[in-house]
Design brief:
By secondary structure, the chain is an all-alpha fold. It has two domains: about 45 residues; about 50 residues, no CATH class. It has seven helices and no strands. The longest helix has 27 residues. It starts with a helix and ends with a helix.
């Protein structure tokens, strides 16, 4: 191979590093997006975490008066935490985290 051919090959390879970098960023981005989709699809809300009693549903979102405060206090007093707690789903959630 003569010197001119070697220099021509080296000149042709200029800028190929940028293409490799762009390809690597795209591949990492696609893997990250796919991982996010899988995570988002598998994330589920447990029924015990979203269960509300009829008294708790009557609690206003914001407290604007003493009547709202009294209603919230009554709802909290009527909530039976011991009976509403589903320990099997809590154990499952803890095992999923660990």
């Amino acid at each position: 191979m003569n010197r001119l051919t070697r220099n021509a090959l080296k000149a042709d390879q200029r800028g190929s590093g940028h293409l490799v970098l762009i390809a690597a960023v795209l591949i990492i981005g696609m893997i990250g997006f796919a991982g996010w989709r899988v995570y988002d699809a598998n994330r589920s809300v447990t029924p015990a975490a979203t269960a509300t009693t009829s008294a708790a549903a009557a609690v206003p979102a914001t407290l604007k008066s003493t009547a709202d405060l009294d209603a919230a206090s009554k709802a909290v007093s009527q909530t039976n935490v011991d009976n509403d707690l589903n320990t099997s789903s809590l154990d499952g959630d803890m095992n999923a985290v660990l």
